[in-house]
Amino acid sequence: MKNSLVIEGGYPLNGRVRVSGAKNAGLVLLVASIMADGETILDNLPRIRDVEVMVKILNDLGVNARWNEDGSLSICPPQGAVKVKTSYELSKKLRASNLFLGALLGREKEAIVSLPGGCDIGSRPMDLHIKGIQALGSEVEIEHGFIYARTKAPAGARVYLDFPSVGATENIMMMAAKTPGQSVIENAAKEPEIVDLANFLNSMGARIRGAGTDLIKIEGVNELKAGRYAIIPDRIEAGTYMIAAAISKGDVLVENVIPTHLHPIVAKLQETGAIVEETDQGVRVRGSKQVRPVDIKTLPYPGFPTDMQSQMMALLSLAEGSSVIVENVFENRFQIVDELKRMGANIKVEGHTAVVNGVNTLYGARVKATDLRAGAALVLSALAARGETTIEDAIHIFRGYENIGAKLGQLGAKVE
Ligand code: EPZ
After folding, report:
1. For the chain, how far is it from start to end, CA to CA, in angstroms?
2. Which of 60, 114, 211, 376 ranks highest by number of CB atoms within 10 Å?
3. Is 76 a catalytic residue?
4. What count of Cα atoms within 13 Å lies in the side-chain half-sphere of residue 392?
């Protein structure tokens, strides 16, 4: 596909859009499925670039992963051992490859996982992941950009996470699921994707309690039985289309959502003046003629999601007044500011805080997607901008949004 999106702004979005399966649930469930004996079938997986890369990594490890006619994905680990070293080439495309640490230790008692390169939103350390697997009995060396982990005497343990890291919680949960004894994760991440992983592992016979709270208890089991599982809808994709409706002053029904997952997004969007209603078909969003400024602080779930911060910044660039956005989760997630300023936005960044002084009009321009969510936010600003916007490096957007061009087109946007 061409690596840019061209959008003619000024068309209100109207109609219905169906949310796909959650990228950040699908990726970890693909990894967890290597721990099961037999064929796992995952339904509702989005066909996005990150999922395609993860499928390649599975096959590279000797796990047979392939799409079925009905759109589901089958994952068949081999009878014997799988390769325990993830490919550097593939891993550098996808940070979530670091989730093989816990799954390989759970299945093979050994893992050699490429240290994920830093990405545009921060250094992305793995100290909490390593603290967790060491507590469960692994010996860890870091050399030549790889984490070498081996467990001689795996045993359940209590792990306190200094920060409720999503990835660290997932890695420890997967390893503990097949580590003899009782493990406890304190100050665990509470994201819906964590709950989906626990439900998936429990459907295979794991014994995990407390997912969704900050205290997760895991009783290790010897084997996990493969089965069929449908992943949850993507709350961030849903939130992105909700803001698309608001910023274009349209009227959109966002279907296939789990309302509780959207509460922080619904609340803040309502504060801007948009009309947001939960119906039994989904969430209906109508844009208001004036956008009110609101202050945003990103926090771990159930706080306002960091993955929606750039999208809100795009909307607030057109507010009647100044908004203050504080990014508390990642240390460098304001990359989008320079691109929005090229479209006429008036934003001032001081460390973790951005002051967004709303303007009346944004103008189409050539801009670059620096990361997935910044790219999505540029789509939103382009929908409202006067004239044509060309978003380069749009591959970042296709990493996490299934059929975004078609979905926006169906709603009346002028996209190619
Ligand atoms: C997951 O990343 C998501 N990715 C991210 O979504 C999301 O932004 C993030 O969680 C927070 O919700 C996937 O699920 C594949 P973290 P993850 O570990 O697990 C620090 C998207 O756009 N930290 O919760 O990498 C870290 O530096 C992506 O879909 C440590 O200090 O996030 C960051 O500042 C972007 N030490 C903070 O915690 C560690 O050992 C949150 O990171 C681990 C993390």
Report:
1. 11
2. 376
3. no
4. 5
